[in-house]
Design brief:
mainly beta, Jelly Rolls, 6-stranded antiparallel β-sheet, 5-stranded antiparallel β-sheet, 2 helices, globular
Amino acid sequence: MAEPSMEKDAINTEDDHLNNSLGDPGLISPDKEDISRILTVPFKGRIRGGMRPGKKIIIMGIVDPEPDSFDVSLTCSCSTEKDEEDFTDVALKLSARFAERQFLRNARISGKWSDEEAAIPYFPFIQDQPFRIEIHCEHQRFRIFVDGHQLFDFYHKVKSLLAIDMIRIDGSLQITKLG
């Protein structure tokens, strides 16, 4: 009789471990008391298991009252050395530029930046206002939504999606939630 209950406890413990590791969809979840420290800008975090079709990353935040720009980058952690950071592959770099009202995107492969893509139907960010960016990973592209509206697609330049396992956020914003 005791043996099955021990088995059950072992399974529950394993389930709890899995639930804890998957509690935050895709990103390492910090301890509750560390959230304000962890979500400070500039932010750098790991994407659990890398990217894959069907995975999405959600960034919620508030634009600064007097914003200049902010960047969101999905990168490969092949190298974490500070000196080699300039050569890390960047699968997607989103750059919101407030003076020009542009939301640019590009990628860097083997140290070379791709051509910047700039076409957008409208500039979605407003100073001192909250926003929600969703990056949906599909087989051929990233599909970017802001506040529930699809803005553009960005076709993959980094072909190994699983290697895209870091996110970096910097600039004129506060991060309120990542998932």
